[in-house]
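Can't paste images in this forum, so I'm doing it all in text. The chain is below; anyone willing to post the predicted structure tokens underneath?
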Amino acid sequence: MVDEKKRDSVDVEVEDRMDADCDERALQDAGPAFEDEPEFEEELEDDSEDSLTYSNGVIEKIVAMATREIPHVLGMKGNLMHLVQETFGAENLTKGVTVEVTDDNRVIVNISVIIEYGCYAPAIFEDVKERVTERLTAMTGLEVAGINLRIEDVVTREEYEASKKRHAEDVE
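Text version of the structure:
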């Protein structure tokens, strides 16, 4: 279940990478003082204060970049804030992407795209799901709970390129 409030970061539990053999040797080297306290090893594991946190912006950026790698995805469709940023010359790499974090630290991804006219949207959706899941897992270790792809527009590649060129001239 997704929190009522959108979280602004994802916490990931970092596993202690020490192997059991090292732990056992450390206890043996410590001598008899540890034999009287069998809970000590558990206390060491519980006292870990290590953490790894990702900003939602980082996750959104990974998703946006992975989505742009898919053939026939011409662009991302953002909201009004993205339009204002682009008007002033700032490129927003997370445009068209939002993420939600579930209570169990899994990620639900929402993506809005512009695709090329004449292409099969269900195939694009499958490609996006596969690439985004692959990139997020490889880069963050996070589990993807779901991906929602919204097709915002369908245009020819020529129309899209002409639109980008007009927009760039308007900004200058």
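The longest helix spans residues 121-140. The beta strands are 9-12, 52-55, 73-76, 97-101, 107-116, 144-155.
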